[in-house]
Amino acid sequence: MNIGICNRCNKMKELCKSHIVPKSFFVSMRDNPNDLIQVSVRLPGKTVKRKIGIYDTNLLCQQCERKTSSIDDYGKEVFLDMACSVIHGNERSGCQYEIENVDIIRLKQFLIAVLWRAAVSQRPEFESVKLEKKVRQKAKKIVFEEVTPKHSEFPFLIIKYLPSDFGPVIVNPTSFVFERCRWAKLFFPGYCVWMYVGRRAPPVIFRKIISYSSSTLYLFGMKYTTSSTFKSAMNVVAGKDTY
Ligand SMILES: [Zn+2]
Predict the structure, then answer these.
(1) pLDDT at 179 over 60
(2) How far away, in angstroms, is 36 Cα from ligand 1 center?
(3) Which of 8, 40, 66, 196 sits in a 20 to 30 Å window from 237, CA-based?
(4) What is the mean pLDDT of the chain?
(5) Contact indicator for 47, 37 with CB cutoff of 8 Å
(6) What is the pLDDT of residue 93?
(7) 218 Cα–ligand 1 center, Å
(8) 57-68 burial string, b = 16+ CB within 10 Å, else e?
């Protein structure tokens, strides 16, 4: 039992296990014949079995944790259960996908919930996830008070890694500065989400390629092995870089 201050209600309470990326995503990967292995890019060679992913026991009380369970379920439904069809190109070299009838606002609330948990967590795996205080407060309102995010708030695009290229991988969320703006990357099995988390309006170029309309989600099909995430992880493993 862990007693502490809940990051949502600010009360001293018994805190529960909060998964940063919901447990259901990790459970879905267990169909894989191999065990789920966490590979650390900071400590090459050190692997840990993570059958249910990473959770934080200092984040939320049970009551506040329950508030996100339905949006977490919806995120899992979109990424793992809904039909994803190729609309251009092919799955061997690169393509565009679509998922129809998606509640984009609800999906965005789910993505922001993952982002907020990663930003607030004190676990070392998420220390690179940084949000400005105002952005963090806005994210908290959207997740827990079910405030509808505007189109210009937390815009995102989704990359689906081509299934023929690599097995399912979840990389821990991260945030970074690119073109003088702050961005975050969130990962789900076989997917990478780029989210703009700056305080000002998103860059014009990003507004043009936002991958959704009112209810259709568009995804960019790319090879994981050619992604910058894969290359930087390989550099770290080879001892050429730090992560
Ligand atoms: Zn609470």
Answers:
(1) yes
(2) 31
(3) 196
(4) 84
(5) yes
(6) 81
(7) 35
(8) eebbbeebbebb
Tokens of 198: 């700056």
Q: How far is the CA of 136 from the centre of ligand 1 (A)?
A: 17
Ligand 1 centroid to 152 CA: how many Å? 29
Which residues are placed with Cβ below 5 angstroms of ligand 1, an ion?
6, 8-9, 61, 64
Whether residue 211 contacts residue 225, with contact meaning beta carbons closer than 8 Å, is answered with no
Q: Up-side HSE of residue 139: CA atoms within 13 Å toward CB?
A: 28
Q: Is 214 exposed, middle or buried, given 0-12, 13-18 or 19+ CB atoms closer than 10 A?
A: exposed
Cα(56) to ligand 1 centroid in Å equals: 14
In tens, the pLDDT along 96-116 reads 999 999 999 999 999 999 999
The mean pLDDT value for 174-181 works out to 83
How many angstroms separate the alpha carbon of residue 34 from the centre of ligand 1? 37
- Least confident span in 41-50, 127-136, 164-173: 41-50
**Hey, which residues does 158 pair with through a beta bridge?**
193, 219
- Per-residue model confidence (pLDDT) at position 52: 66
| CA–CA dist 158, 140 (Å, integer) | 22
Gap between the Cα atoms of 123 and 121, Å rounded: 5
